[in-house]
Amino acid sequence: MAKVVICPICGRSFETSKPNKKYCSFTCKEAGNKLRRMVWRNTHPHYDAAYMKKYRAERKEIKENEH
C-alpha cells in the first residue's frame, strides 16, 4: 500500500510504500541530514570541541589542586 509523502527539503510529493521514508531522493536525504546536524549543533553548544577542551583543562586543574 503506497502513500503520498511531501519531501521536507524540496516540497515535491512522491509515493512510497515504506512508512518511515521522508525524502524523495538521495540528494534531499543528504541535505536533510546536513540540516539536522546543523540544528543539533546549534541547540547543543556545550558539545563544541573548543568548549570541551577548555572544560577538560579546568577539570584537570581542579583535580590536581585537590591532591
In terms of structural class, how would the helical and strand content be classed? mainly alpha
Number of domains: 1
Order of SSEs = EEHH
How is the largest sheet built, in terms of strand order? 1-2
Beta strand count: 2
**Rg:** 21 Å
Residue-averaged pLDDT? 91
Share of helical residues:
40-55%
First-to-last CA distance: 67 Å
Bulk shape: rod-shaped
Strand content bin:
5-15%
> How many separate helices?
2
Description:
The structure is a single chain. The chain is mainly alpha-helical. The protein has one domain (3-66). It has 2 helices and 2 strands, in the order E-E-H-H. The chain has a two-stranded antiparallel sheet with strand order 1-2. 3% of the residues are buried.
Compact description:
The protein has 67 residues and is mainly alpha-helical. Helices cover 54% and strands 12% of the residues. The chain contains two helices and two strands, in the order E-E-H-H.
Properties at a glance:
single chain, 67 residues, mainly alpha, two-stranded antiparallel ribbon, 12% strand
